[in-house]
Design goal:
The complex is a heterodimer. By secondary structure, chain A is of the alpha+beta class. Chain A contains 14 helices and 16 strands. Chain B has a five-stranded parallel beta sheet with strand order 6-7-8-3-9, with helices on both faces. Chain B has a four-stranded antiparallel beta sheet with strand order 2-1-4-5, covered by helices on one side.
Chain lengths: 418, 235
């Protein structure tokens, strides 16, 4: 009979208390791995908010600010970019495509973005994913609108519904463009990006609702929807624009050229780089989460320590018997370390099982709510390291009861204390 | 058994004193046992019986004097060599709680070979360890149907006999029994002793039997008294 078999049988005999320990370790492991998964998914989803766009250009401002208002629709631009400058840059040889963005209006808490149909052709998110339509198609008429998935879901809109945009970002009745309603012609699929929360209209639409406005309020001149169409609906300025280059290698040069643009002060940012930079500033939350789950693990280990120390008392007889048949004090320590190792491994396996169960169960919900496709792949190296750390940590902790048992087995010898 | 036979157990001017204490717990001038001899060690509780047991089993070494087991000076061995010596050459029967509750009866006997290659080989002989364990259990009046039972299903008397089987498997030269009958009634006690003597003799074991019960001493050829006053008188 080997030591391992003795340890196994002894552990099975005390399975109830050990099972509780396994469960507490399993929960810690699930939390630790879960935090890691959430962290990676959140980061991946964040960094992939926009892809394949080489530059984003707006009025001169800090890169984070430009990124925030152009991509995340948070905050607002301090200045606009002139249409002339936009046209000049889109005609550069190095530029393959440009997509203008015009922000400033809203619809019941959702931002309205004026753009062209090129937006649906060139915007990419995630791993080079296109925007796809759940229903309908791209806008063609001035008063057409395409809704992001969340807008349609939250407000219960369907194709053919008419919606009214509000001037500015707060919806108040007197600032409504209620004379020029838009018709929903398309609803996009969920992307997990700010696109989901955006109401898309054409640049001409944005111009049309503002023809009879001046300096942010209605002018005395009242023009209805039909009359507005007779005006030239080419914008004089836009908020920002996205740029795709013929050749990626030219990114820095074009960026510099735009930053040095003579007729108008503008900033060009590389979205990937700025996203990364921005993530670093907001990623403290992941460290907080990680530290929290470390404390959960610590609590689990302390629970285990208590359990093992309390069983040591009732195991004094067992240890005396083992000593009588020739077990060394170190063998007694080995027995305790082995048992703990089994508990740790069982806890890790149960924790992994629990993690996958939770991931699999929440996968459809997460895809629906956040547009994030949870991957149920193999554990990666960080997660492997976490598991290894749990097992090593547990074994280290077990040296404490191991040491107690060692000292007792030398003191007690063959005396069976009851 | 002749007087010329070498001593299996030999104690010479042995004292033992716990560190930090002024009195000896054990003081034995001389003791010699030859192969197959039975010794009854009598002493009231507190007379150092457990300490003597730990000394003979090689858990402790004497403060002064010499303990030779099978011609080996125990104090000259390292602690782990003494553990090994105990595994190979000594069988122990406790007062009670002899058995590991998570093992079957049969496993409680064979576990004795877990730490001793020598016992394993001697128990296996021409057959296997398990077969020898079964034979021992049977001869100690523990029929086959009990061999897979759990410890809790056995009476105290049966448990003590399983402990004897464990102590005897692998034919150790020395068996030490510490009050093995104190939990038994008179009838069971006599039958237990009969079986213990019979099996020990069959294997030629030297038996050291510790008890506070003077009634039992008449069945032993050697008797040693551990005086209650030993600690004080030895100062």
């Amino acid at each position: 009979m080997t030591l391992l078999r003795i340890a196994l049988k002894s552990a099975r005999f005390r399975r109830t208390s050990l099972l509780l320990t396994v469960i507490s370790i399993a929960i810690s492991v699930t939390l630790l791995l879960g935090v890691d998964v959430v962290r990676k998914e959140a980061k991946g989803s964040f960094l992939n908010t926009i892809s394949e766009t080489d530059l984003i250009v707006g009025a001169r401002s800090g890169p984070t600010n430009l990124l925030l208002y152009s991509v995340f629709h948070v905050g607002s631009a301090t200045n606009n970019v002139g249409w002339q400058s936009y046209e000049t840059i889109s005609e550069l040889d190095e530029v393959a495509w440009t997509v203008p963005i015009s922000l400033g209006d809203s619809h019941r808490g959702f931002r309205v973005m004026g753009t062209t149909d090129d937006y649906f052709a060139f915007y990419r998110y995630g791993n080079k994913k296109d925007l796809t339509f759940d229903n309908g198609k791209v806008f063609t008429e001035v008063y057409d609108t395409v809704l992001g998935a969340d807008v349609a879901r939250d407000l219960g809109y369907q194709l053919g519904d008419e919606i009214v945009l509000s001037h500015g970002l707060v919806s108040v009745d007197f600032a409504a463009h209620d004379d020029k309603p838009f018709t929903v012609v398309g609803i996009l699929d969920k992307t997990g990006t700010p696109v989901d929360r955006t109401v898309h209209v054409s640049l001409a639409g944005i111009e049309a609702i503002h023809v009879d406005w001046q300096d942010g309020s209605r002018s005395g001149l009242q023009l209805d929807a039909e009359q507005a169409l007779k005006f030239d609906l080419t914008p004089t300025s836009i908020t920002a624009f996205m740029v795709g280059l013929e050749n990626r290698a030219l990114t820095f040069r074009v960026q510099r050229d735009i930053n040095d643009f003579e007729s108008e002060p503008m900033s060009a940012i590389i979205p990937g780089a700025t996203l990364n930079e921005f993530w670093r500033t907001i990623s403290t939350f992941e460290q907080v989460l990680f530290v929290l789950s470390l404390f959960v693990l610590l609590a689990g280990l302390l629970g285990m320590l208590t359990t093992i120390l309390s069983t040591l008392n009732e195991r004094r007889r067992e240890i005396a018997v083992l000593r009588a048949i020739g077990a060394r004090p170190t063998t007694v320590v080995m027995l305790i370390v082995l048992e703990t190792l089994m508990v740790a491994i069982a806890g890790c396996l149960a924790g992994i099982g629990l993690l996958y169960a939770v991931l699999a169960a929440s996968k459809p919900l997460v895809a629906r709510r956040f547009g994030v496709d949870l991957s149920l792949g193999w554990l990666d190296s960080t997660q492997g390291l976490i598991l290894l750390a749990v097992i090593v940590g547990t074994t280290m902790v077990s040296l404490i009861p191991g040491f107690v048992a060692y000292r007792r087995s030398i003191q007690d010898g063959l005396a069976i204390r009851v | 058994m002749t007087a010329a036979a070498p001593a299996v157990v030999e104690l010479d001017q042995v004292t033992f004193r716990w560190p930090g204490q002024s009195a000896n717990t054990i003081a034995i001038d001389e003791l010699q046992l030859r192969a197959g001899e039975h010794l009854f060690v009598r002493g009231p509780s507190g007379s150092g019986k457990t300490t003597l047991l730990n000394l003979l089993a090689g858990i402790h070494v004497p403060t002064s004097g010499r303990i030779q087991m099978l011609g080996t000076d125990m104090a000259a061995l390292s602690p782990s060599r003494r553990d090994r010596f105990r595994a190979d050459h000594i069988g122990v029967v406790f007062q009670q709680f002899n058995l590991l509750p998570y093992l079957s009866i049969l496993e409680n006997v064979t576990v004795s070979c877990a730490f001793s290659q020598r016992k394993r080989e001697r128990a296996a002989g021409a057959v296997e360890v398990k077969a020898t364990a079964r034979r021992l259990l049977r001869s100690l009046n523990l029929p086959d149907e009990l061999h897979q039972s759990r410890v809790a299903e056995l009476s105290v008397g049966q448990q003590q006999r399983v402990a004897v089987a464990r102590a005897l498997i692998g034919s150790p030269e020395i068996v030490i029994a510490d009050e093995p009958t104190s939990a038994l009634d008179a009838d069971n006690r006599d039958r237990f002793l009969d079986l213990l003597f019979h099996e020990a003799d069959a294997q030629g074991c030297t038996l050291i039997f510790v008890s506070h019960d003077p009634e039992l001493s008449q069945r032993f050829e050697h008797v040693m008294e551990l005086a209650d006053s030993a600690p004080r008188s030895a100062v």
